[in-house]
Amino acid sequence: MALALEARAMKDDMMLGDTPKAKRRRGRLSEQQASGRLWKHSRMRDIYGLVTQEEIENYFTFTMVRNPWDRMVSYYHWLKNQNFAHPAVSLAKSCEFDAFIKDNGTQRAMLAGNASHYMKDQNDVEQCDHFVRLEHHAEDIVRLEKHLGFSLGSLPTENKSTRNQDYRLYYSTATMTIVEQCCSEDIHRFGYSFS
């Protein structure tokens, strides 16, 4: 999605992320005073200083969401390949997936990290006009393309991991239930199921 949108980015557009154009523009953000960390997974409440409350309320905002069971498998494998000091990285590198999901810290992160969490403003009000489900992007992207006024075309898969693509193979009944409980808000809101 970021690559498809950056192809149309104008010279003054701000970009957060790790796409080629965003990396080239990082210097522009270094002198900006933001309310939080500026990176590709910034929350809405992190970008104050780059934008105002009025702009946030007037922008068409959207984000992508993912099946929580698949997301947790992806997160685990991503953590295993990181080299920075963080408890989640250490945990993923030191245990199997089952133990990772059963860990209290992982469960707290799941409970706190629902889709709405990323799209809440400084007043804790969700400011998201559209959620695009990764697994249904062809269907969900239609509203976004209508708003943009152009087609994004077919979106190739980027950052594909080497893990088994069938996330269900990683789960026991116990860990499947843990994710179901911790991520119930997103599961119900976006119509996800384990299968």
Number of helices: 12
The count of β-strands is: 2
* Structural class by SSE content: mainly alpha
Shape: globular
Strand content: under 5%
Unreliable residue runs: none
**Major sheet summary line:** 2 strands, parallel
- Mean pLDDT score, rounded? 93
* Helix-strand pattern: HHHHEHHHHHEHHH
**Sheet with most strands: strand arrangement:** 1-2
Percent range for helical residues? Answer: 40-55%
Radius of gyration, CA atoms, in whole angstroms: 18 Å
**How far is it from the N-terminal to the C-terminal residue, by CA?**
25 Å
Write out key terms for the chains shown.
single chain, 195 residues, mainly alpha, two-stranded parallel sheet, 12 helices
Describe this structure in words.
The protein has 195 residues and is mainly alpha-helical. The protein has 12 helices and 2 strands. It has a two-stranded parallel ribbon with strand order 1-2. α5 crosses α6 (87-94). The longest helix has 13 residues, at 68-80.
Task: Summarize this structure briefly.
The chain has 12 helices and 2 strands. By secondary structure, it is mainly α.
Write the layout of secondary structure elements.
Blueprint: H1 2-6, H2 20-24, H3 26-30, H4 53-58, E1 62-65, H5 68-80, H6 87-94, H7 97-102, H8 104-112, H9 115-118, E2 130-133, H10 137-148, H11 173-182, H12 184-190
Parallel strand pairs: 1-2
